[in-house]
């Protein structure tokens, strides 16, 4: 990249549609050259935020800047950003090269310069040699890369991707995701990528910003979101986990519950004495044991999911709580009575008090 990457700074951004707040008090810095994944459930405001950054919407409150430059009053075409739309928006009647060149339209570049930039963008996404093909004559994964090349051809200051893999079938999606992760790492352009899939966010984003109801609930590395979720929503949205009713002891240092494997468990951080809530248990923090063994919660296997070297077993306790357990090796059949204990070395559980 000839241009140095700049940080994108959002400061207390708010947006309403028809008096309904769709984004509220949103502050976020995307570091120079960073790939930030914007993750959240449907309707959480991801596309709205991306459109605000792109310049297709303007914020009601707050500001957006790229480096030292305020961008929120700048028209979209003057921001110099590249965007890959959810359905690519490629022109089927144009060739691959024609589509990429379209990204340069309005720049009044000499023909030779257009050709050079098209060739360079196609090379970056490994499509050299396919320039003269029609878009209808290439695969879905290749179309995805044409859309990326079109966004890259003008040498954008910022790259915006809205659900870039959502119209690929699952097997192609995984391969394309890997390619995209590599392209983005090599490009080094500040990038914001929208997805509603956690796996996609975790593979493509160096950091992940999680939106819920128009608010940013947590921004961090995948490890931070998985290991230290900011609240119960994040805990349930990121990764797999079982949530078990638990009560904090009189000291505020441990929790206990009928379906809590291991009996009374020490907490990593003190909680209000006597409060009730839920303990979060990741599948890898649990193990199967003989029913009746020390500290084991009894139950019956309800479903299993084979995953190669590892499998996942869901055990239902007599109280109707479901515990998902990661197992290495053979998995028990549904209907088998079993016990669930804490895996050796499992960290102290996270506890989320129930409000009220
Ligand atoms: N132009 C608009 N006018 C009114 N409401 C809108 C408009 N655009 C979006 N909304 C509303 O704003 C909220 C957030 O929409 P947005 O498209 O940003 O969500 P999203 O996180 O991208 O969801 P999805 O994952 O389904 O694409 C929704 O409740 C939506 O109905
Ligand atoms: Mg959307």
Low-pLDDT ranges: none
Order of secondary-structure elements: EEEHEEHEHHHEHEHEEHHEEEEEEEEEE
- Measured between the Cα atoms of the first and last residue, the distance is 54 Å
CATH class wording of the largest domain: Alpha Beta
Q: Give the helix/strand class.
A: alpha+beta
The helix count comes to 9
Biggest beta sheet attributes: 6 strands, mixed
CATH superfamily of the largest domain: P-loop containing nucleotide triphosphate hydrolases
Biggest sheet strand line-up: 6-7-8-3-9-10
The amount of beta strand, in percent, is 25-35%
Distinct ligand kinds = adenosine-5'-triphosphate, magnesium ion
What does this structure look like?
The chain is of the alpha+beta class and 356 residues long. It folds into two domains: 8-234, Rossmann fold (3-Layer(aba) Sandwich); 240-353, Beta Barrel (OB fold (Dihydrolipoamide Acetyltransferase, E2P)), CATH 2.40.50.140. Helix content is 24%, strand content 33%. The strands form four sheets. It has a six-stranded mixed beta sheet, with helices on both faces. Strands 13-12-11-14-20 form a five-stranded antiparallel beta sheet, with no helix packed on it. A hairpin with an 8-residue loop joins strand 12 and strand 13 (265-266). Helix 3 runs parallel beside helix 5, helix 4 (111-124) crosses helix 5 (140-152) and helix 5 (140-152) packs parallel to helix 6 (170-187). The protein is elongated, with a radius of gyration of 25 Å. The structure holds adenosine-5'-triphosphate (ATP) and magnesium ion. The site of magnesium ion has 2 residues, from helix 1.
């Amino acid at each position: 990249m000839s241009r140095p990457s700049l940080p994108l700074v959002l400061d207390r951004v708010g947006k309403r549609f028809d008096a309904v707040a769709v984004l509220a008090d949103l502050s976020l810095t995307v570091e120079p050259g960073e790939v930030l994944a914007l993750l959240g459930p449907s309707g959480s405001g991801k596309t709205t935020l991306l459109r605000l950054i792109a310049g297709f919407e303007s914020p009601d409150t707050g500001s957006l800047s790229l480096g030292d430059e305020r961008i929120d009053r700048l028209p979209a075409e003057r921001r110099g950003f590249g965007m890959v739309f959810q359905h690519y928006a490629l022109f089927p009647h144009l060739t691959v090269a024609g589509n990429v060149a379209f990204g340069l339209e309005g720049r009044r570049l000499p023909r030779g310069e257009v050709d050079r930039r098209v060739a360079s963008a196609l090379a970056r996404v490994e499509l050299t040699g396919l320039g003269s093909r029609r878009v209808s004559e290439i695969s879905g994964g290749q179309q995805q890369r044409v859309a990326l090349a079109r966004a890259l051809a003008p040498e954008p200051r910022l790259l915006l991707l809205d659900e870039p893999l959502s119209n690929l079938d699952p097997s192609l999606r995984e391969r394309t995701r890997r390619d995209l992760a590599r392209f983005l790492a090599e490009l080094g352009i500040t990038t914001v990528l929208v997805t509603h899939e956690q796996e996609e966010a975790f593979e493509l984003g160096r950091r992940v910003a999680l939106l819920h109801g128009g608010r940013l609930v947590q921004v961090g590395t995948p490890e931070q979101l998985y290991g230290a979720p900011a609240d119960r929503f994040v805990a349930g949205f990121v990764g797999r986990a079982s949530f078990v009713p638990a009560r904090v002891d009189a000291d505020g240092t441990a929790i206990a519950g009928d379906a809590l494997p291991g009996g009374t468990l020490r907490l990593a951080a003190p909680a209000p004495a006597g409060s009730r809530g839920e303990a979060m248990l990741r599948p890898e923090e649990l193990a199967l044991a003989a029913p009746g063994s020390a500290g084991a919660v009894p139950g019956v296997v309800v479903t299993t999911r084979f995953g190669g070297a590892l499998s996942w077993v869901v055990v239902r306790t007599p109280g109707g709580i479901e515990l998902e357990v990661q197992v290495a090796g053979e998995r028990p059949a549904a209907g088998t009575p079993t016990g669930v204990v804490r895996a050796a070395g499992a960290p102290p559980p996270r506890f989320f008090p129930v409000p009220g």
